[in-house]
Amino acid sequence: MAGGPSTPELVAAAGAAGALGFLAGGYLSAPVFAERIRAARALTTGPVGANVFVPQPSAGTPEALARYAATLRPLAERYGVEPGEPRYDDDDWAAKLDVLTDLRPEVASFTFGLPGERDCRRLRAAGITLVATVTTAAEARLAAERGMDALVVQGPSAGGHRGTFDPAASPASLSLAETLSAVRAVTDLPVIAAGGLMTADDIARVRTAGAVAAQLGTAFLLADEAGTNPVHRAALRSDEFTETAVTKAFSGRYARGLRNRFIDDHEPRAPLAYPEVHHLTAPVRAAAVRAGDPQAVNLWAGTGFRRARTGSVAAILSGLA
């Protein structure tokens, strides 16, 4: 839940209600990431989880990015902003590993790939449980070989970015149930099911299928403690949006969100180029939020978004028990 929804207050409330909350490190500077872990620690005596994006080589080219930037310019001008600089960066990876080692959240999870062997040894020596997000059996096998302690098995109904390791690959299409079965066939590591889970019945189903736990994100987007912006909150509850779509138009990586005009207009021309496209579209998305316009901002959500509830984290978790 990078980009705002995950807050120290949400993590603390989840812990108080018997769940494990995660702080999202994606897109944050290392100092801000550290500040949020400390804030969560100050709010709870329970365990804290932290998630970081693993940098991968970009799949983009300067030519493709220049063409895409040109298609965005009319929309940017409409909002009175310039498209961002389509730059590559590693999301402050090394510094965030230092933050994890220093502040020692009980669990660290990784999305888009795996930390190196040396980093794994260092984090484990700090007493941190290591969890990898995987979308296929092949990724699960790699994660097991790298020494992960557990796996989050992400199905195709998940909101936000797919955790696919290869930035140039199309997302896997097997259902969550099929992926769980395939992963359990290649490793004995504990698996946590994720993707499209919104109800107590959903959780019971994946537990019956062999998952030791369920991980939910979209179910908490409307929580009181979530940092979901007002445009996103309103869109999730609006009859204007009826379906989700998987798109690379906002970030240059495949992600699922509410289908809006930006996806319809720009998905066909968007290159696979992460994080360059993320930086390119960022000023437009920010301007759309300021303007209260849901048609030009990434509204990440899983396929079950209609069942997202308002209220406190504790009340939402009570309904999921």
Automatic annotation (TrEMBL):
<dbReference type="InterPro" id="IPR013785">
    <property type="entry name" value="Aldolase_TIM"/>
</dbReference>
<dbReference type="GO" id="GO:0018580">
    <property type="term" value="F:nitronate monooxygenase activity"/>
</dbReference>
<keyword id="KW-0288">FMN</keyword>
<comment type="similarity">
    <text>Belongs to the nitronate monooxygenase family. NMO class I subfamily.</text>
</comment>
<dbReference type="InterPro" id="IPR004136">
    <property type="entry name" value="NMO"/>
</dbReference>
<keyword id="KW-0216">Detoxification</keyword>
<dbReference type="GO" id="GO:0051213">
    <property type="term" value="F:dioxygenase activity"/>
</dbReference>
<keyword id="KW-0503">Monooxygenase</keyword>
<protein>
    <recommendedName>
        <fullName>Propionate 3-nitronate monooxygenase</fullName>
    </recommendedName>
</protein>
<keyword id="KW-0223">Dioxygenase</keyword>
<keyword id="KW-0560">Oxidoreductase</keyword>
<keyword id="KW-0285">Flavoprotein</keyword>
<dbReference type="GO" id="GO:0009636">
    <property type="term" value="P:response to toxic substance"/>
</dbReference>
<dbReference type="Pfam" id="PF03060">
    <property type="entry name" value="NMO"/>
</dbReference>
